[in-house]
Write a structure and sequence with these properties.
CATH class of the largest domain: Alpha Beta
Bound molecules: nicotinamide-adenine-dinucleotide, zinc ion
Order of helices and strands: EEEHEHEHEHEHEEEHHHHHHHEEH
Helix content: 40-55%
Structural class: alpha/beta
Radius of gyration: 21 Å
Number of domains: 2
Number of strands: 12
Distance between the termini: 45 Å
Length: 385
């Protein structure tokens, strides 16, 4: 930690990617200094703020004023909120606005929003005039701990999520944890699923911390929020530095996502939101690992308890094995027809294994039998699950 100009505790995490390296700067109320931060990056001329209607309501006036005060000419592009905005149509809207405002190669895009806005803006910056600089100002917990770091950008296709895009690293990521205070509670919890994931895949001490502080985290106390965002960014930065384009190591970030993505797609993206599906996915991928002998029961027990304590769903919805398996096969992480799954060996360490259909079916039948037994035992007591 270093003292900032404003004397607020500030931290900077370096993402090492050679010529594409950048910093994640995190500070409470950093939003007030965005103009100075952009000047420090030597951004000049025009800045295009891409945001959504929710964020515009809370922050656009303030951010625009700060940037203008620092001498920037500002154009804002406000899109509807939500995943349905993450399309090529929105990219067209951004392109039109940039052309109309005569943006140049040296102009900058600023993503003010959650993962949807960050992914759109990064992709727009990759293709406008073959590439202009962009910075991330992530506003949701998912965006602060995950999507703003690592350079995956893009939009959805009607036939699949994130099918169109580019690797494009930002010039910087500016995180102001104070912005999380306006985030809807369901979105906050969804972000916690990704935070818990970092503990499981890379840091047992961080997982312990989450277990010990979950009450304070649920109440968004400043120091716990700052710690979980910082540690999550450090882990993501480290993993991305080791494997920018997901050839190998970066795949560990997909823990919980093999089953999670399948549940999202089976629900037609109208049931669980992403983080909720990942929470259930983590619990059941850990249980699959236990079944296959990769980890002990205690991993599943601790993970389920933490997921529940964070207010996230921890139970598989009613689903048939064949439907689940088929949805798992749709995932982008499938290679030559084989489904690869990240499984824990213990809290803090994972490995990637190919899944075999018959073994996975046997595990699934075991889960169904166990859970139906639990439901029957719970009924006489009059307790519904
Ligand atoms: N690029 C990556 O590596 C990566 C990683 C993870 C997720 N993603 C993508 O990120 C998206 C999910 O991100 P998300 O969960 O941030 O979704 P989102 O951008 O849709 O934001 C969720 C909701 O919260 C609102 N919101 C965000 N910040 C707010 C704030 N501070 N105050 C009030 N409202 C706020 C938004 O308007 C939106 O309605 C998905 O499209 C996913 O594919 C990308
Ligand atoms: Zn995720």
């Amino acid at each position: 930690m270093t003292a900032s100009r404003t004397d607020k505790p500030s931290c900077s995490i370096h993402v090492e990617l050679g010529a594409r390296s950048y910093s994640i700067v995190m500070r409470r109320d950093l939003l007030q200094d965005l103009g100075e931060e952009l000047a420090r990056l030597k951004c000049a001329g025009k800045v295009g703020i891409v945001t959504d209607r929710n964020l515009a309501k809370h922050y656009l006036t303030q951010v625009t004023r700060r940037l203008k005060a620092a001498g920037y000419s500002v154009v804002s592009i406000v899109l509807p909120a939500g995943e349905r905005t993450k399309t090529l149509l929105s990219i067209g809207t951004v392109m039109d606005a940039l052309v109309d405002a005569r943006f140049e190669r040296s102009s900058t895009l600023l993503a003010l929003g959650g993962g949807v806005i960050g992914d759109i803006t990064g992709f727009a910056a990759a293709i406008y005039q073959r590439g202009i600089p962009f910075v991330q100002v992530p506003t949701s917990l998912v965006a602060q701990v995950d999507s703003s770091v690592g350079g995956k950008t893009g939009v959805d296709h009607p036939k699949g999520k994130n099918l169109i895009g580019a690797f494009n690293q930002p010039r910087a990521v500016f995180i102001d944890p104070a912005m999380l205070s306006t985030l809807p509670p369901r979105e906050w919890k969804a972000g916690l699923a990704e935070v818990i994931k970092y503990g499981v895949i890379a840091d047992a001490a961080f997982f312990d911390y989450l277990e010990r502080h979950i009450e304070a985290i649920n109440h968004l106390t400043d120091d716990t929020v700052a710690h979980i965002v910082k540690r999550s960014c450090e882990i993501k930065a480290q993993v991305v530095s080791e494997d920018e384009r997901e050839a190998d190591r970066r795949r560990i970030l997909n823990f919980g996502h093999t089953i999670g993505h399948a549940l999202e797609s089976l629900g037609g993206y109208r049931g669980f939101i992403h983080g909720e599906a990942v929470a259930v996915g983590m619990v059941y991928e850990a249980d699959l690992a236990r079944h296959l002998g990769y980890c002990g029961e205690e991993v599943v027990v601790r993970l389920r308890a933490l997921v529940k304590a964070a207010g996230l769903p921890d139970r598989l919805p009613k689903v048939a094995f064949n439907a689940l398996w088929a949805a798992m096969q749709q995932d982008k992480k499938v290679s030559a027809g084989t489904i690869y799954c990240v499984v824990p060996e213990r809290i803090g360490a994972v490995r990637i294994i190919p899944l075999e259909k018959s073994q996975t079916r046997a595990w699934f039948q075991d889960v169904c039998a166990r859970e139906s037994g639990e439901r029957k035992r719970a009924k006489p007591m009059g307790r519904a699950r």
